[in-house]
Amino acid sequence: MTRKIAFKTLGCRLNQYETDALVSQFHKSGYKIVDYNEEADIYVVNTCTVTNQGDAKSRKAIYRATKKHDDPVVIVTGCMVDGQKEQLQKLNGITYFVENAQKSSIFNIADAHFKGETVNPEEYNKDLFGFEPADTTFHTRSYIKIQDGCDNFCTFCIVPKVRGRAVSRPIRDILENIRQVVDFGFKEVVLTGVNLGRYTYDGIDFEHLVEQVLEVPGDFRVRISSIEPEGFGDRLFSLFGHPKLMPHLHLCLQSGSDKILLKMRRFYNIKTFMSMVDRIRGRYPDFNLTTDIIVGFPGEMEEDFEQSCKIVREAGFSHIHTFKYSKRDGTRAARMEKQVPGKVKNERSRAIRDISAENKKQYRGSLIGKEQQVLIEKYNASTQMAKGYGNLYIPIEFKTGAGLQNNFSKVLLTGLGPGDDPVLQGKMEEWNIGKME
Q1: 128, part of any domain
Q2: Residues with Cβ < 8 Å from 346, sequence gap 6 or more?
Q3: What is the CATH number of the domain that holds 425?
Q4: CA 218 vs CA 38, 180, 221, 382, 437: distances in Å
Q5: I want to staple 3 with a disulfide (CB 3.0 to 4.6 A). Which of 23, 41, 219, 400 is the partner?
Q6: pLDDT tens string 358-414
């Protein structure tokens, strides 16, 4: 009998990497991967607890799994398990709780369950980097985990509690992981972790790691996932001149107010952050910068918020991931005075999202008339429209009769689609099957 398994992933790229690895392992072992809305024998919920919204979405996903017919096996894992296991244990219908440290053992846990063995997830080995390279995933690109945990202890953040202290993956394992997924046929890899800039292993820091990644042979391109503005500088900026390293960074700002950054316990001020922005744009004028902003942090006054609005306009971020501050038990910010009312958070969140939409249209519009190398992710045979992401991590669609996914195409950008999240329209100039320029 072929067993069916469904996955639901909440939160960060690191969770996505870990889910992809599990999907591949179950698939290779004969399981059928089905949509989360379908009936399955096993449901795996990879949770997020960074914000109240993450909690709510995770609980909803767990509830849906436990209400399925035929009493399925429900495995709940991820940061919500590490941070709120006692509360989750009060819920009905959950078969196993698996903490982040044992997440790579989920296949073995499920396999033992169906063999009728007594299973205690806490007895499985703790291995943050024990995931097999994934050849079957939910994505065209392949995420590569290089680091886990964080030592920064920002006053708002629960990640050090649920992910632990910073630990880096051996560089030889990272490079081998990349070689394997390139051999599987992936043409884009994304370096991911909790705090990438703090990577260090045997004297190799993040910048030198990226240098070695770019030397791996093969026709693929490299992206850097969300990163804190620390642990790197001009050496990394120079590497964006390499044809394999894509000119985009999600550089986490969080606030445009030095006063609030200090209260957050961030390790930079606005002057140093904007200096990084200016140095990047000085080298690469079209470089795509995106960011995170937290609104309504305790003590954030109107003038602090206005400073955030000013900075995100000046920096020209093409996308701003906006968070309304959420109290996280066990963090210093949860105990701070001058908590901001929910109504004010909502208003400020809308204002930042409006600026983000303006920036996005302006930035994407500035690219019209330029070329991008697009890695095609989707193709609609009926319309002959292909869609994918260019070098700058901007969605692009264009008409083509070839219809080959996971290949590169040189596209001239000709216009901008409608809406607040406009897709760039393009015209195919050259089809490069299995070739990246």
Answers
A1: no
A2: 324
A3: 2.40.50
A4: 38, 11, 9, 33, 12
A5: 41
A6: 999 999 999 999 999 999 999 888 888 999 999 999 999 999 876 678 889 999 999
